[in-house]
Design brief:
The protein has about 110 residues and is mainly beta. It has a single domain, classed as At1g16640 B3 domain. It is about 5% helix and about 50% strand. It is built from 1 helix and 9 strands. It has a 7-stranded mixed beta barrel. Strand 1 and strand 2 form a beta hairpin. The protein is globular.
Length: about 110
Amino acid sequence: MYEAKVRGLSTLYANGDERIEFHLSKEKNKTFPHEYNKRLNVLLMFEDDIYKAGIRSTKACEYIWICSDLKDKDEKSIKLSDIIKKYGLNKNQSLFLDFVSKDVLKIKVIY
């Protein structure tokens, strides 16, 4: 299981919502799969909902991140900021990510 934080990026969408990513410290999550300068596709599971997401990392960055742009089961674009609202998550909140299969990450919220 990997620990992550909900992070705001201080940039806003046209509707006024802040852009959100999930950040994982490279130091604390050394075995979390990622490749530098490449987006790895993953399915992100919140309760019974599954979204297509991306994992990114660069050598210069101290963290790995789950990208802010997702796709729902109908291939409709959805923002991570909309997802955190739907599930009652907040900026800077901790959560756990657990691989339930090779490319499916389940979100476990810490309240």
